[in-house]
Amino acid sequence: xxxxxxxxxxxxxxxxxxxxxxxxxxxxxxxxxxxxxxxxxxxxxxxxxxxxxxxxxxxxxxxxxxxxxxxxxxxxxxxxxxxxxxxxxxxxxxxxxxxxxxxxxxxxxxxxxxxxxxxxxxxxxxxxxxxxxxxxxxxxxxxxxxxxxxxxxxxxx
Length: 157
Known about the structure:
Low-confidence stretches: 1-24
CATH superfamily of the domain at 48-153: Jelly Rolls
Oligomer: single chain
Radius of gyration: 29 Å
Number of helices: 1
Strand order of the largest sheet: 1-2-3-10-5-8
CATH topology of the domain at 48-153: Jelly Rolls
């Protein structure tokens, strides 16, 4: 009999709790302010490219930050046949190729062709040359840095 009473008590308690939960669901929603959204969504047609000063033919579209001032994530676009010449950057650059065939030639290594989906890290002060393979489509690649972008020409060979 004690066991039966215990089961009845448990069932009654459960029914009471589920009834309380159901009553809570019928109450009006609270008037808490909506949380601030940090979403930033850009469809491809909304990404706006602008000419890069000092790099004729190159264009950039910042997704976050400002490549002239500090940390940033930026799309870069080069026409087919574009060549930077030998240069280096003061800060590490991470690169993902999105479109076209990017060419990269680190000093002391053979030049490589990198298609869409390819990735490389350009260490700070590493002498190299980059370009967009001639005869193909324009190159679009994404770079990210924790500091402002610079390009220091170095034509000594």
